[in-house]
Amino acid sequence: MSIWAIVPAAGRGTRVGSALPKQYLTLAGRSILEHTLSALLSHELIAGAMVAIAADDVDFPSSLTSLCGKPIVTCVGGETRAHSVLNALRASSCTHAVVHDAARPLLSADDLSAVIAAGVSSSTGALLASPVADTLKLSSDSSHVVRTVDRSSLWRALTPQVFERDALIAALDSALFAGASVTDEASAMEFVGVSPLLVEGRADNIKVTTPGDLAMAEFILAQRS
Ligand code: C5P
């Protein structure tokens, strides 16, 4: 078995309000991407990282070729996150892929271990997820409530998501070819009839999307250290 981290980092991330793509913003002295890669490559079972970057990316540091003694390789991403993941999977030659958003720098070692253990021991693969805590409203016009949605069986999908590489490539290919909405890897697996395992993860494994998230990430890191 060989496990690689697959890191889609080809997004522009403009909602964070900076000209610099969000994965290159600084958090406690290091870029968000370096925090993310360091969290992944610290895991003893992850052998290396394949990072999908934009074709015109000028910010990925050329010196970032290894961390924790393990290789970091880049490939060109695609039009959507799913296309970027597919390109990165094709550029790697592992048996299992641990797909993790570049913009989630706060992944804990315990969550990573738990999702890898579940993902490699089950043919369905696994994803970190968090039960929905808020009351949910359905709106048909973005301004008025139609009704309240039962949240008792709803989960927020996080990353990492761990799947057999070849199965994930086949699922992404099928889902993208059919024009299905593929916002995470699990949704591609669901498209081909697989029910991935949910592994409850920490809710503070946030994706940095807005300036408020960056401040929140700084705060969480400071609390942890
Ligand atoms: O835009 P969003 O926050 O959903 O992006 C999630 C992750 O997917 C980010 O790490 C982003 O860099 C990546 N991405 C990508 N290729 C795209 C769009 C997003 O690798 N075309």
Q: Show unreliable segments.
A: none
Arithmetic mean pLDDT: 96
Annotated CATH architecture: Alpha-Beta Complex
Shape: globular
Q: How are strands sequenced across the largest beta sheet?
A: 5-6-4-1-7-11-8-12
How would you describe what is shown here?
The longest helix has 14 residues. Strand 5 and strand 6 form a beta hairpin. The model has no long low-confidence stretch (mean pLDDT 96). The chain is an alpha/beta fold and 225 residues long. The strands form three sheets. Strands 5-6-4-1-7-11-8-12 form an eight-stranded mixed beta sheet. Strands 2-3 form a two-stranded antiparallel sheet. It has a two-stranded antiparallel sheet with strand order 9-10. It has one domain: Spore Coat Polysaccharide Biosynthesis Protein SpsA, Chain A. It is globular. It contains six helices and twelve strands. Bound molecules: cytidine-5'-monophosphate. The site of cytidine-5'-monophosphate (C5P) has 17 residues, from strand 1 and helix 2.
Question: Characteristics of this structure?
Answer:
225 residues; Spore Coat Polysaccharide Biosynthesis Protein SpsA, Chain A; alpha/beta; globular; binds cytidine-5'-monophosphate; two-stranded antiparallel ribbon
Task: Give the topology, please.
Blueprint: E1 3-9, E2 26-27, E3 30-31, H1 32-41, E4 46-53, E5 66-67, E6 70-76, H2 81-91, E7 96-99, H3 109-121, E8 126-131, E9 136-139, E10 145-149, E11 155-164, H4 165-177, H5 185-191, E12 197-200, H6 211-224
Parallel strand pairs: 1-4, 1-7, 4-6, 8-12
Antiparallel strand pairs: 2-3, 5-6, 7-11, 8-11, 9-10
The chain binds cytidine-5'-monophosphate (C5P).
